[in-house]
Amino acid sequence: MNKTPKISIITVVYNGVCALEATMLSIFHQSCDNIEYLVIDGASIDGTVDLIKQYDARCNAGEFPNISFRWISETDEGIYNAMNKGIKMAAGDWLLFINEGDFLRDIKPFFDIIKKNGDADLIAFPVELSSGTIFHPQFNWQIKTHNTLPHQGLFYRRELDVFYNEKFKVFADFDLNLKLFKQKADVIFGKEIIALHSLDGVSNDKRVAEEVFSVIQDNYGIFYRVLSILYFKYKGFVCRIKRLFS
Question: How far apart are CA 233 and CA 226, in angstroms?
Fold first, then answer.
C-alpha cells in the first residue's frame, strides 16, 4: 500500500491579524491527516504574533490532532523571501501556499487524485475569487501571456525545483509557473473548488502590473511581452464595455 503523502501548507503574513484567523481555521479544520502547517510571519507588530501563539498553544493542547503546526516570526525581504523560508522549513512531499486572507476548502479531492495517480508534478484545482468569479486553471500556451495557475489551488510536488526568484516582488509565483511550463511539468486537474482567494492582495494592484510583463519577457522574450500587453488591453476594453451596458 502506498504511503499517504504529507502536505506542507504555507501561509505568509505581515500585520494581518484581522484576516489571518479565518485562514488558519480553514486549515486547522481540515479532516485529512498528514498535514503540516507552517506560518511565516514577517515580525508583525499588530497582534498577529499573539494570535499565532494562541493557536500554537491550542495545537500543543491537542485541539487539532491531525495538524502538525510550526511557525516563525522574523523580519524578511518581502513576500517571496518569506515563502522561500517556508519551503526550506517544509517537510512535506507536496507544497501548497495559502496566504493571509485566503480560505482553504476541504482538500480530500487532492488525496483522491493522489491515490489514483501519484506521479504528477502539479495538481491544480479551481479557485473562487472574492469577486465571485471561478478561476479555472489551465496549463497551455496561454500561460505565456498571463498566469493561468492560481497558487491557492496548486499543489507542487516537493521534488520539483520549487523556489521563488526574489527579484520579482509580486509575481514570482507566475515566474515559477512559467519555468515549470518550459520544463513540461506534468499537471493533473481536479474539478472541485479547493480555495477562496482574496483580491485584496498587492498582486491585484494595477500599479504593479508592469512586473507581469517583466516576468514574461524574462522567460519568453519581447514578442510575448507585447502579446501580453495586448491581451490585458483587450481584457480591460471588454470590462469597460460590460460596465457601459450593465
Answer: 11
Backbone angles phi, psi at 156, to 5 degrees: -100, 130
CA 83, 85, 87, 90 torsion-angle sign? negative
State the Cα–Cα distance between residues 82 and 77, nearest whole angstrom.
7
pLDDT (tens place) for every residue of the chain, 246 residues total: 357 889 999 999 999 999 999 999 999 999 888 999 999 999 999 999 999 999 999 999 999 999 999 999 999 999 999 999 999 999 999 999 999 999 999 999 999 999 888 789 999 999 999 888 999 999 999 999 999 999 999 999 999 989 999 999 999 999 999 999 999 999 999 999 999 997 765 555 555 789 999 999 999 999 999 999 999 998 888 888 877 876
pTM: 0.91
DSSP string, 69-97: EEEEE---SSHHHHHHHHHHH---SEEEE
Residues contacting 85, CB < 8 A, separation 6+: 40, 72, 76
- Taking alpha carbons only, the member of 243, 181, 232, 242 closest to residue 209 is 232
Q: What residues contact 119, with CB distance under 8 A and at least 6 apart? A: 186
User: What distance in Å separates the CA atoms of residue 223 and residue 136, rounded to the nearest whole number?
Assistant: 26
